[in-house]
Specification:
4-stranded antiparallel sheet; globular; alpha+beta
Length: about 55
């Protein structure tokens, strides 16, 4: 997954506005805020749609 660090600094979780961190093993961006949603990254493009997010187990 190739997401520039400057982009990660400005991206936020669309659900709770928390910070996002990369999970390279799962090709996801994971919210570090209150909701803990995981957003898929397809072809190096983050899909930041709440409907597409995986909820925490």
């Amino acid at each position: 997954m190739k997401i520039d660090s400057w982009l990660l600094e400005i991206l936020a979780c669309p659900n709770c506005r928390g910070e996002l961190k990369t999970d390279d093993a799962a090709d996801e961006l994971v919210c570090t805020g209150t909701c803990k949603y995981a957003y898929p990254v397809r072809d190096d493009i983050p899909v930041l749609l709440v409907d597409e997010a995986r909820t925490p187990a």
